[in-house]
Design brief:
single chain, about 325 residues, Rossmann fold, Dehydroquinate synthase-like, alpha domain, 7-stranded mixed sheet, two-stranded antiparallel ribbon
C-alpha cells in the first residue's frame, strides 16, 4: 500500500491511499465525529463500500449527464430526509463525475460537510479526485458552477481498474499523457500503483502552491481548453481523457504558431499520444466557429481566450486573441471526413 499526502498552504493535509485493496481502509478514514455517511455513486460503478457507520446509498444516473444542478438539489433534499448533519460525511464512490458531484454536494450542503473520495477509474485516481476542485455543468459549458472543497481523504484502489471497460481505461490514459508533459516522464513504464502515485505527487505539489487556481495550478488544465469545448459541442460523446489527448496536440499546435515551441516539440506530443495508444485528431463533425466561441466560456477566460501552452519557460497560461491562428490550429488536428 502506498500513502501519499496532499499538503495545503495553510497547514491542512489529507492522505491518499493507493494500491490493491485500499477500499478496506475506508472505515478508519471516516472522520470520528461522523455518525452518518451518504454514499453517492452511479449504478455502473458496481463498487460497494462499508464506511463502518450508519449509511445510505444514493445512486445517480450514469454518465456526465449526472453533473447537473437539479441533481444536486435532489441529493440535498434526500440528505435532509436521511438526517444528515454538518458533522456527517459524504462518500463519493466512482469516477470523476461522481467525485465532482459528491464534492460539490459536500461543499454546499449545510455550507460544507466532510467528503471522502473513493475513486474507481484511472482518470479519477490520477486527477479528478485529487485537489478539491468540484462542480457541475451547465448547458453552456462544462464545470461552470463549482467550488474548491478539499476531501478529508482519498482512496485509489487499483483493483477497481481491472474491471474498467477498455474505453474508460483509455480515457484515463489521456490525463496520464498530460502528466508526462508536467514532469512525469515515462509513466507507462511503472507498475499501476506507482503510476497513480507519481501523478498524485505531481498534482499535490501544484495544489500545495496554488490551491484555488490563482496562478500555477492552471497548468493542470493543459490540453483542457479544447477538451472542454469538444465535450460541450459533442454533448459528451467523447470521454474526457479522449478529449484531453486531442487538446494536448492542439495546444502544441497553437504554441508552435505563436513561436513558443518548435515543430519537434509538436511531434513529441504526437509521439507520446501514440505511445499511450491515444488518438490525436479531432473527429469529423465539429464546427470550428462553435469550438472557438466555446473557448471564451472556459473557466480560464477571465480576460479573453486563455490557453495553457508550452514554451521557453515551460507550461503556463497564455492569452490568445488571434482567432485565425486558433482556426488554423484546429485544421491541423482535424481528422479527414
Amino acid at each position: 500500500m502506498l500513502v501519499e499526502s496532499v499538503q495545503l498552504s495553510d497547514g491542512r493535509s489529507y492522505p491518499v491511499h493507493i494500491g490493491s485493496g485500499a477500499i478496506a481502509d475506508l472505515a478508519r478514514l471516516i472522520p470520528p465525529r461522523a455518525r452518518r455517511a451518504a454514499i453517492v455513486t452511479q449504478a455502473g460503478v458496481g463498487v460497494s463500500v462499508d464506511p463502518g457507520i450508519e449509511h445510505e446509498v444514493f445512486v445517480v444516473e450514469d454518465g456526465e449527464g449526472a453533473k447537473r444542478l437539479s441533481v444536486i438539489e435532489d441529493l440535498a433534499g434526500r440528505l435532509v430526509r436521511f438526517g444528515m448533519t454538518r458533522n456527517d460525511v459524504v462518500v463519493a464512490v466512482g469516477g470523476g463525475v461522481v467525485t465532482d458531484l459528491g464534492g460539490f454536494l459536500a461543499a454546499t450542503y449545510h455550507r460544507g460537510v466532510d467528503v471522502v473520495h473513493v475513486s474507481t477509474t484511472l482518470l479519477g485516481q490520477i486527477d479528478a479526485a485529487i485537489g478539491g476542485k468540484c462542480g457541475v455543468n451547465l448547458p453552456e459549458g462544462k464545470n461552470l458552477v463549482g467550488a474548491f472543497w478539499q476531501p478529508v481523504a482519498v482512496i485509489c484502489d487499483t483493483d477497481t481498474l481491472q474491471t474498467l471497460p477498455p474505453r474508460e481505461f483509455s480515457s484515463g490514459m489521456g490525463e496520464l499523457a498530460k502528466y508526462h508533459f508536467l514532469g512525469g516522464g515515462r509513466l507507462d513504464e511503472l507498475p499501476i500503483a506507482e503510476r497513480v502515485a507519481a501523478c498524485v505527487r505531481i498534482k499535490a505539489d501544484v495544489v500545495a502552491s496554488d490551491e484555488r487556481e490563482g496562478g500555477r495550478r492552471a497548468i493542470l488544465n493543459y490540453g483542457h481548453t479544447l477538451a472542454h469545448a469538444l465535450e460541450t459541442a459533442g454533448h459528451y460523446d467523447l470521454r474526457h481523457g479522449e478529449a484531453v489527448a486531442i487538446g494536448l496536440v492542439y495546444a502544441a499546435e497553437v504554441a508552435h504558431r505563436l513561436g513558443r515551441i518548435d515543430r519537434g516539440a509538436v511531434d513529441e506530443h504526437r509521439r507520446v499520444l501514440g505511445a499511450y495508444d491515444l488518438r490525436s485528431e479531432m473527429p469529423p463533425g465539429f464546427e470550428h466557429d462553435e469550438i472557438i466561441s466555446l473557448f471564451a466560456r472556459d473557466k480560464k477566460a477571465i480576460d479573453g481566450v486563455t490557453f495553457v501552452l508550452d514554451g521557453p519557460r515551460g507550461i503556463e497560461s497564455v492569452k490568445v486573441a488571434d482567432t485565425d491562428l486558433l482556426r488554423d490550429a484546429l485544421v491541423a488536428v482535424q481528422a479527414a471526413p
